[in-house]
Design goal:
- 43% of the residues lie in helices and 14% in strands.
- By secondary structure, it is an alpha/beta fold.
- Strands 2-3-1-4-11-5 form a 6-stranded mixed beta sheet, with helices on both faces. A 5-stranded mixed beta sheet has the order 8-7-9-6-10, sandwiched between helices.
- β7, α7 and β8 form a beta-alpha-beta unit.
- The radius of gyration is 26 Å and the shape is globular.
- The mean pLDDT is 89.
Length: 395
């Protein structure tokens, strides 16, 4: 028995000495040298990226240009609030041909603020995300209008672009809709096929609609669509019992098959908010350009709200799938300066602020395993330009 105790003691002391030797070798760097010599393949490869450094490190030290010498490219997916952007830039172009469209009139930015800019339309939100990620210098865009929930979901993949929210563009007040055939109400969606584009804001709206009906995500059979614009077609072809998409598309499809619209963002007018985000490198290099874009968009928003006719014609040419462009503007009107002040907490009251909307969307997407952790809301916005414009315009 004594022999066993002595053996155990020696074993314990031996393990302690071995552990102490390992710790000492690690501290002195001997283990790293041995690993590099005998096991080089196991060495961790560290990938460096632009997101590891502040976005403005490459901005000029002096003689910062007011605006870029080339056109500023602003990406968007069509919705009613895009009418202000179209009026500000004089129309829309595509990424394949970002020049001014034939016969395009000069917009507010050119006429009022001596700045050349192009509104570039994208067929899907994911394509817009990719363009914002690479930037205009590499075939993408400098700025983009996207919903807050999309920004929350995309931030990990947009890390190198360091996007910063600078303006509220508009809110959906009926533009997103959930329509169905043979389903009388939201609660009856249980065990039904619900089709939606998972990379669009309609997906976020569909989640809200399920929560309103007390349904879990597993209570419906999800059908992924290739784009939001495929929602109406999916309902017509019987690939789904219900779809979430744009009102002008899904309402007509439901009516054609004897169905109905079960819910719209008119029931949640503060849920889907579209904001303007700028790449960090662009904002750092051309701060005055950001201010000019904000001024022009606010001017255009006021013009659209006073007389939607000219902007509605531009919107109708770009996005006939929205239905009546005037109605599309009504269901997603462009935001005013007062809307912006309240939304970002500068003055006034808003039922839902930017920070609240971003944080809740971020938490939801993490909960359902759609994204990794996101930074605090205040780290995703830069209100310097908006405050400058707001103060200049007064109360």
């Amino acid at each position: 028995m004594a022999l066993r105790r002595g053996s155990g003691l020696f074993l314990f002391l031996g393990l302690c000495l071995l552990g102490l030797g390992y710790l000492l070798a690690s501290r002195l760097g001997y283990l790293d040298r041995l690993q590099a010599r005998f096991f080089p393949a196991t060495k961790v490869a560290v990938r460096l990226s632009p997101g590891d450094f502040p976005a403005g490190v490459a901005a000029p030290v002096a003689d910062v240009a007011s605006v870029p010498l080339r056109p500023t490219l602003i990406g968007f997916t069509a919705r009613g609030s895009a009418a202000a952007l179209l009026l500000a830039t004089g129309g829309a172009s595509t990424l394949d041909n970002p020049g001014a469209p034939p016969g395009a009139a000069q917009g507010v930015l050119k006429l009022g603020y001596a700045m050349d800019a192009r509104a570039v339309v994208f067929p899907s939100e994911d394509e817009l995300r990719k363009a914002l990620a690479v930037g205009a210098e590499h075939g993408g865009v400098d700025m983009a209008t996207i919903s807050v929930d999309r920004l929350a979901a995309w931030l990990p993949s947009l890390r190198d672009a360091a996007p910063r929210t600078v303006l509220l563009v508009g809110r959906s007040r009926g533009q997103e809709a959930l329509a169905a055939v043979g389903v009388p109400d939201l609660a009856s969606l249980r065990d039904k096929r619900l089709a939606v584009y998972p990379a669009g804001s309609s997906y976020y709206f569909a989640l809200w609609a399920l929560s309103r009906a007390g349904l879990r995500m597993s209570d419906v059979r999800w059908v992924d669509l290739p784009s939001t614009l495929d929602a109406g077609r999916a309902l017509r072809e019987g690939r789904a019992d219900a779809v979430a998409g744009l009102w002008g598309d899904v309402e007509l499809a439901a009516r054609d098959r004897g169905g109905s619209v079960l819910a719209t963002t008119a029931d949640a007018p503060h849920l889907v908010a579209t904001v303007l985000v700028a790449r960090g490198d662009y904002a750092a290099r051309y701060p005055d350009a950001v201010r000019r874009v904000i001024r022009a968009l606010l001017d255009a928003s006021n013009s659209v709200l006073k007389d939607p006719g000219p902007a509605a014609r531009l919107l109708g040419e770009v996005a006939p799938y929205l239905g009546d462009p005037t109605e599309a503007i009504r269901s997603a009107p462009p935001a005013t300066l007062a809307d912006n002040r309240a939304f970002f907490g500068l003055s006034g009251e808003a039922p839902v602020t930017y920070d609240e909307l971003f944080q809740s969307a971020s938490a939801l997407y993490q909960k359902i395993k759609r994204t990794a952790g996101a930074p605090p809301a205040e780290d995703t916005r830069d209100l310097g330009a908006l405050k400058y414009v707001s103060e200049a315009r007064g109360p």
